[in-house]
Amino acid sequence: MPNERIPHSNQPQEQECVQSQCVSSNEDMAIKQERDGSVEGEGSLPSCSSANGPSASAEGCPSEVPRRGPALLHIDRHQIQAVEPSAQALELQGLGVDVYDQDVLEQGVLQQVDSAIHEASCAAQLADAEKEYRSVLDDLTSCTTSLRQINKIIEQLSPQAATNRDINRKLDSVKRQKYNKEQQLKKITAKQKRLQAILGGAEVNIELDHAGLEEEAAGDGIN
């Protein structure tokens, strides 16, 4: 029947209309970007996904942010011995290009790669050592502060310890705490010296008065 062919005859017109809308949208977007001075690649322009579907908007097609990959190693060819011009092949002489022996070239590249890996490893070790060193400085501050507080308590309890048994027991407990702190301090200072060797003798921001601590310990009767 004649009426059954009408939808089929209108379908190309609908497709042409949708396609013309997509092209018009693309042209409008391109003109707008050109006026703004921010013309981007084809990936940022809207596209028509299908003949029957709506065209994608700029919000629906976000541009991908380029990911930063690992740093590239640049080979310095000036560090690799080139073949003397007189020893080059006749067809290469006079061209002004550097010619390398394959074995020498491979060895030179491998040496630069090994050197770059070593430098990266050293940089990572230094970064870890600096972070650990800051933690050690905090431990030094905490430990020395605790020792000073313990010495003050010992100084306050010592006059009464001879006549009061409870105070004497408390004083013994405080002295054991002081001994443990002193052992902890020795470990911290040893760790500090090890990190200083890695960092190339970095100066300590917190100075410890070991002589003063020893004098206080001697005054309290602790060996």
Automatic annotation (TrEMBL):
Keywords: Coiled coil. It comes from the Eukaryota. Residues 29-38 have a biased composition (Basic and acidic residues). The keyword Coiled coil applies. InterPro entries: cc_ERCC-6_N (IPR059240). Residues 164-191 form a coiled coil. The keyword Heme does not apply. Residues 8-27, 46-55 have a biased composition (Polar residues). Residues 1-68 are annotated as: Disordered. This is ERCC excision repair 6, chromatin remodeling factor. It comes from Equus asinus.
